[in-house]
Design goal:
The structure is a homodimer.
Chain A (H helix, E strand, L loop, with lengths): L11 E5 L3 H12 L3 E5 L5 H19 L10 E4 L2 H5 L4 E4 L5 H14 L5 E4 L6 H4 L9 E6 L8 E5 L6 H13 L3 E4 L9 H17 L5 H9 L11 H8 L4 H9 L17 H15 L4 H22 L4
Parallel strand pairs in A: 1-2, 1-4, 2-3, 4-5, 5-6, 7-8
Antiparallel strand pairs in A: 6-7
Helix pairs in contact in A: 1-2, 9-10, 10-11
């Protein structure tokens, strides 16, 4: 049985691939007080990473640095083996090219000490597709961030065939430990969760442009000045929980359920079975965690005001 | 040719239907300094409206009241004709029941002075479906708000068959005049724009719950801590404009275009024709209005930080 590192002892991590995503990870790790060892085949990788860290550092400072954070505590190595030597975790963020990732993950695995978990930033591939060339696929997991990784908390974690469930658990705890918001998926779903939701919205938007139903600018305004103002506070589920008034999601589904048959998007809805209805209602109740509809409304309104005021201040408004 | 009111002379508006949406409109109109005359068949309508205004007023105060705003400057009338007498604009927010709305809009139209525009809060019907019983459908338009109407700026405006284009233009200017963010649609599209986008996301989410691919809580976390943090700042189009690096949307479409064929959502994408590609690129360029990718990234990052800090303060965090 593999022993994974005690994460409290980890002081150095490796970033393999330091473009926009990998470099963003590097900046984030530095802000949490880790030393970063990086590898990237680009000849100007070190210069680029330096610029990216310098650009991200004011934001990271504003959000709060770890006491021992040092923005210069990084090195770029010519050899992959040197970059992963002695580290407690490895984040791979190579371009989304299957053959390249297959090869790179196998090389990382060959060079890294046993028990060191490797998180892949892949946004498109499941780990079962990525780990087939690695000698020890057990420690390879998906750790999918959102751009920019130093500002957006979400990381989606999933294993694949051959992944050790303990490695998935370790990765989830690790990302949580370093301050990310973690979703641990118990299966491989193309696009994971956030990208599937985002992709549905994006595809409907493309259809609307394609059919002359809306302009690019109208689509963006519809989100930024409409439901987008609620989404950093309450996701689509809790949003509709509140759309049901005091009856919450149950009332919402009973009242608006028939609208799932309406041609309000090109995506056909699932049949609203009794089981689906109950699953959604129960999920909202769990998420509400005892907060009443009125409490959730107050929280939403306070959040929208805070967001609108913060953005108005940025724009030099009131 | 119909003469519409000079909106600078409007001092009183009518709210017909004062549930959550109509009452929210009433609170908003009061905050902008208007007198509100309301009508609603519920026996306790006045008491409910008083509570709703009282609950909304602190938020409205924080966002900034018009100098002459008075939270008590409203009345609820037993007769519809009395509610719409002498007003410069009428907002209809009755329940989403077709026969009821058909009848009510005809009655409002019969009672209101000529040239007074009626905006319907309908979220589901096009105006062509709603105006068929009215004697003068020309002044009936959709003015679709988002909940809560006193906090979310978006209003989608659209006419239907028989609507005077000048009434649509007047309504758009009116909502803009009172401080809303207005999208004027040049055709009737079921779900308008924001609800279509929101509905696509919601239906994909329901499919995921239905198939056990994600829990309700994971779906909400995926949005609130992921792409949702970007959406009050930059909509889905501008978000992907930045995903293309310095090459912007053109690079994004050329690089990720093939992923439109990926099974990342149940919604099939349109064919990425040369015309669609160019329309999306041109739309992003127009929306960017000369701002460089770097400037847009800085604005996004500053916005995300502002939002995260504002929400952390609300939660008693850093």
């Amino acid at each position: 049985m593999t022993t994974y590192p005690n994460m409290h002892d980890v002081d150095t991590v490796a970033c393999v691939g330091i473009g926009t995503i990998g470099g963003g990870w590097a900046a984030y790790f530095l802000s949490r007080g880790f030393r970063v060892q990086a590898w990237d085949p680009a000849p100007d990788a070190a210069a680029k990473l330096g610029r990216l860290i310098a650009a991200a550092w004011p934001a990271l400072t504003e959000l709060g640095l770890a006491p021992n954070a040092d923005k210069d505590n990084w090195s770029v190595h010519a050899e992959l083996a040197d970059a992963v030597a002695g580290v407690g975790f490895i984040q791979e963020s190579a371009p989304e090219v299957l053959d390249l990732k297959l090869d790179l993950l196998a090389r990382i695995d060959a060079a890294a000490a046993p028990g060191v978990v490797v998180g892949s930033s892949t946004s498109g591939y499941g780990m079962s597709e990525l780990n087939t060339r690695a000698a020890s696929p057990a420690r390879l997991v998906v750790g999918h961030p959102f751009n920019p990784p130093y500002l957006i908390p979400l990381v989606e974690v999933a294993g694949g065939e051959g992944t050790d469930p303990a490695a998935v658990a370790w990765a989830s705890q690790w990302y949580d430990f370093i301050g990310k918001s973690v979703i641990t998926m118990d299966r491989e779903v193309p696009g994971f969760i956030a990208n599937r939701l985002q992709e549905a919205l994006w595809r409907e938007a493309l259809h609307m442009v394609d059919n002359g139903e809306a302009t690019v600018e109208q689509i963006d305004l519809a989100i930024t000045d409409g439901p987008g103002l609620r989404w950093p506070l309450q996701g689509p589920m809790l949003t509709f929980h509140l759309a049901g008034g005091q009856g919450g999601m149950a009332h919402m589904l009973d009242h608006f359920g028939p609208s799932l048959k309406s041609p309000w998007t090109r995506l056909e809805a699932p049949e609203l079975t009794e089981k689906l209805r109950q699953d959604v209602i129960d999920g909202c109740d769990e998420e509400a965690a005892g907060r009443s509809i009125d409490e959730l409304i107050s929280a939403r309104d306070a959040g929208i005001i805070a967001i609108r005021r913060a953005l108005a201040q940025l724009q030099g408004g009131n």
